[in-house]
Amino acid sequence: MREQSRQMQKTRASVDSTESTVLLTGASGYVGGRLLGTLERRGMKVRCLARRPDFLRPRVSSSTEVVQGDVLDVDSLRSAMAGVKVAYYLVHSMGSEGDFESEDLRESGIPTIEFRASIIIGSGSLSFEIIRALVEKLPVMVTPLWVSMRAQPLAIEDLIDYLVAAIDVSVAGSHVFEIGGSDSVSYLDIMKEYARQRGLRRFMIRVPVLTPRLSSLWLGLVTPVYARVGRQLVDSIRNPTVVEDNSAMEFFDIRPRGIREAVAQAITNENREFAETRWSDSSSSGVAPRWGGMLFGSRIVDSRSTFVSARSREAFHPIQRIGEYAGWYYASWLWRLRGFIDTLAGGVGSRRGRRSPDRLVPGDTVDFWRVEAIVTNELLRLRAEMKLPGRAWLQFEVVDGESGSTIRQTAIFDPVGVLGLLYWYGLYPLHKLVFAGMLRGIVSSIEGPSQEDRTGKTGRRHPHAHTEVAGWHEAPVPSIARQLRPSDRRG
Fold this sequence. Notes:
alpha/beta; globular; eight-stranded antiparallel β-sheet; four-stranded parallel β-sheet
């Protein structure tokens, strides 16, 4: 080991990030998306190889090059590798029916550093999404034996640090580094830690009868992973995945965090950015819209938009007047009833009103909401302070266009346990009616007189106004939600 260390240190080199091009494959995936953002922030010249460049281009900075190609197409690789000194291979085939390990690149014939990690913990990662879904949805869990297998979960931030640091390490031939977090735990331990940090009580019963196939079908029912991926995942964790070779500690000045900090950071990141990149964003996965809103991690997102023939300044005016004086633009009596019920339940109710009829600043109250963020003529985000089995936000965005502007209304709910899910889905038909009516009322307030904002009755619609009830895929919903602040985490 010492002789190998000396050999690697002799061949250590540094890549000039301002001149050399870094090739990145798998940039649309979870790890690749995170790595891409880090490389761009460091000012590196990045070239992304993608089978569908049009899908990736909107996600990269103007300095990043996106080329079409396939890792199994030699001709496309030749052109993509021109001028490249460092290449990241972050492509897998877990969604295919074959053995993805045999499909992946193993022997390239050039100096290669390979990282072998166990469970990756991060906001949006496959492992974290499974853990979250199980804990959030199931007060009582019947768990198979594989949840007791030991592993060393690695925070996504630490993994990215390893990948970036590897640029400055050159090896003669190839070298495999085993990397993991500072704690040796099991999936069961991680679920218990997540439940502890979320303030949830969960009961787990272990049984020896769940085969990998049954486990994968079970995961497909209650988590955001379909059965084929679940089978590959279960097969990969049926054996302990702990670090046995600690050589990474010698060559990388990185000291990975433990499971408690990794889970806390993942929850914080989820609140702050609504996950930078999701595992389901990769080209091998597909997510269809669903009744009740789209799930993003533990959050449920219900979004709709409308176009108005007015500039953003005029369109934003009724939005910043919402609540108390102007009402809620549709069925305001229902909002008052909701405030009365909240008061009876010991909540703040709607008696607080608002400080000014036509001006808002962060921290202002709007009935039983509080202004979390406001950007003049662009954005208003309200955080709910009524009694709820979870957390809720209501957000409005206004974007100027050529002949008018688009208003997007988004309701976000972060349910706590089964009660939170029952609350959302039980009231979803009413929420959908009220939120859609509110958006129509705002349009009518902008473009013509209507009684809709006061009585809930449908008023006259402007001929240029149209409303589109949108799922998450019809607008950049992550841009809405990634502004959620970590300071708003529930204790």
